[in-house]
Amino acid sequence: MIDFRVTILGCGSAKPTLRHFGSSQIVDYGGRLFMVDCAEATQLQFMRYRFRDSHLGHIFISHSHGDHCLGLVGLLSSQSLWGRRDDINIYAPFELKDILMAEIGFFVKNPGFNIYLHPIENTLGSTLYEDEEVEVTAFPLLHRVPCFGFLFREKPRERHIKRESIERYGISSVDDIKSIKRGLDYITPDGIVIPNQELTTPPTPPRSYAYSSDTMPNAANAELLDGVDLLYHDATYAEAEASLAEAMCHSTARQAAEFAVMCKAKQLMLGHYSSRYKTEDRLLEEAVKVFPNTILANEGLRIEL
Ligand SMILES: [Zn+2]
Ligand SMILES: [Zn+2]
Fold it and tell me: Residue 296 pLDDT > 80, yes or no?
């Protein structure tokens, strides 16, 4: 099975603390690295967890608050210093386009690589990236500025072929095996149709990961994220600060858990913690009461999907 893992580089919120770094994560799909958000010092965290620069081709920025994007220009500048040659694609809300182009133009002079900036428009489920195996779609979040979540989802897999059936019917042609894996029936040289169900078992369900920060609970996204394997959700505050969460357009841990129930997530990871908490135990306690399979994000945490 192809590796599909998420590594947390930072899960704090806007006010700096020595306890957490600002928001950033790496989604590794089969060795292709996708960065989600790029707070200050992200490039140091990227080095600390020993990711390879050349494998990083796509950076997704959720919104224009500094705790999600102030590390981007520094990271690009360092890539240039180290002689990067591979293209890099940046996906960011449309309102960031001009400022990012100006900053990159000023601070990253004559990079030896192409930087492509893709503005994200305000549409639910728009595909930002896809290849043969995985796709990344954006979904709108409810925050104080235009803000997007990102869904990483494998494409539907092929059916598993039953070795004993293949041997029984003497199927050896590569083309026949490929079409059977895609779900087609097999026709023997004598013209007998062998139903696909007799030759295969169902494919492994596609795996998925959703990043949903910063945001108030947004029920409109539940259908798109239905059944997601791992959901990372804004859990800036505990219930005692619920009115502050609403005023700042963030979520409480309990609201994150309620959203996980709504979209039938298999696992919830809380993050984007307010600097006011010395530990996140209370956030976890409040979420687990609603959605038991909840974990706390932490720097260096690596989840295999
Ligand atoms: Zn934030
Ligand atoms: Zn924000």
Answer: yes
| Backbone dihedral angles phi then psi of residue 62, each to the nearest 5 degrees | -75, -40
Please identify which of the residues 28, 37, 67, 234 carries the catalytic annotation. Answer: 67
Q: How far is the CA of 95 from the centre of ligand 1 (A)?
A: 17
Q: For residue range 70-94, what is the model confidence (pLDDT) as tens digits?
A: 999 999 999 999 999 999 999 999 9
Closest by alpha carbon to 57, among 96, 39, 30? 30
Q: SS in 3 state form for 89-126?
A: EEEEEHHHHHHHHHHHHHHCCCCCCCEEEEEECCCCCE
In order of 9, 75, 84, 86, 261, the CA distances from 50 in angstroms are 11, 15, 16, 18, 35
Q: Structure pTM? A: 0.93
47: DSSP letter: H
Residues with CB under 5 A from ligand 1 (ion): 65, 67, 214
**Helix 97-107 vs helix 72-81: crossing angle, to nearest 10:** 30
67 belongs to the catalytic site: yes
